[in-house]
Amino acid sequence: MKKSLLKCILVLMFSLSTAFASTWPKNVTDILGNTMTLKEPPRRILLASGFNFVSLTFVHEDPASLLVGWGSDLKKFDAATYDLYRQAFPKLEKLATIGSGNGNELSKELIFSLNPDLVIFDAWQAPSTEQLAGMLRKSGMNVAYIDFYQSPFKHTIPSIRLLGQLLDREEKAEKLATFYQSHLDTLTSRLSTPNLPQPKVLLHAYPGMWACCWSSGSGGLGEYISLFKGVNIGAAKFPTANGGQLNLEYIIQQNPDIYIATGHSGVSKTEALPIGTGIDAKLAQAQLNKVISAPGLSTLKAVKEGHVYGFWNYFSSSPFNIVGMEVMAKWLQPELYKDINPQLTMDEMNKTFLPVPLKGTYWITLQK
Known about the structure:
Layout (H helix, E strand, L loop, with lengths): L2 H16 L7 E4 L5 E4 L6 E3 L5 H7 L7 E4 L2 H5 L1 H10 L2 H4 L1 E2 L10 H7 L3 E5 L3 H13 L3 E5 L5 H15 L3 H19 L11 E6 L8 E2 L5 H7 L3 E2 L11 E2 L2 H7 L3 E6 L12 E2 L3 H11 L9 H4 L3 E5 L8 H12 L9 H12 L6 E2 L1 E3 L3
Parallel strand pairs: 3-4, 3-6, 4-5, 6-7, 8-10, 8-12, 12-14
Antiparallel strand pairs: 1-2, 9-11, 13-15, 14-16
Helix pairs in contact: 8-9, 9-14, 14-15
């Protein structure tokens, strides 16, 4: 090998190894525009929503080692995913819990007693944690907000990169951001196709848990519907990510073309839609059949024509939301996305980025 070529290769290797080298102190801006200066890598992190632990595993091989406390919502609402992580990271079992995630329920006294050097909130917690965040900053603690739920298209990649900065894993975060952007570009590049169908969609959150029917709003999962040219029948009534309750008469009058029910592993196995980590597909199928047999729902066009689906609600809480987007793209525009394989995407993300792969049934098409 010529010396000049060898020199070029060595320079390139050095450049790649240093491109993402962390320098401290580090100036960081979170997804809400808050700025902070981190003097050194955080080693005592408080995770205000336990669900965001999934996101941390995408960029750090052992995020539990950095935590001094977390919200109890993952353990409370998605026990199967929690158990999967607990087996891999035994520290989680004894980790201090500060409340269920809602800002009004977080224990301020416990938070301060844990003396974190960084507190990570989810953006949906912002309205109820503004005062607490101010108190933490005045005490010298850093506070950062991330978001994979409320504005997924705007905030997912910035949140990935932010976590890379915060956890001192910028190179891995950038690889994830590149992977994510590539898959998102594949989806969005086809949407200029003329005369795409615009099906009416009911995204029914947690059927069997609440009175019929809690619908997605215009934000959050509702953004998936509108991106793929669906008409979300709850969007106009609920211009938020959280959505709200539609009455059955309105749903019947709208007569949606597509019905999507959401659930997770922690819901009733006999009354709701169990779906997600550790859930058997046969159980999910049986319960989805039961859900759409309810009075009113069984008469919908979507049900009669067989456009009935089940969807893991927590696609919305991590970079796995790109898999949820691919799934929904195929349901709303099947001809446009017939070559897209969400399972392949999830398998690749599990293999490439995660120290603990998620396994279960995360979406289904109703089989009669």
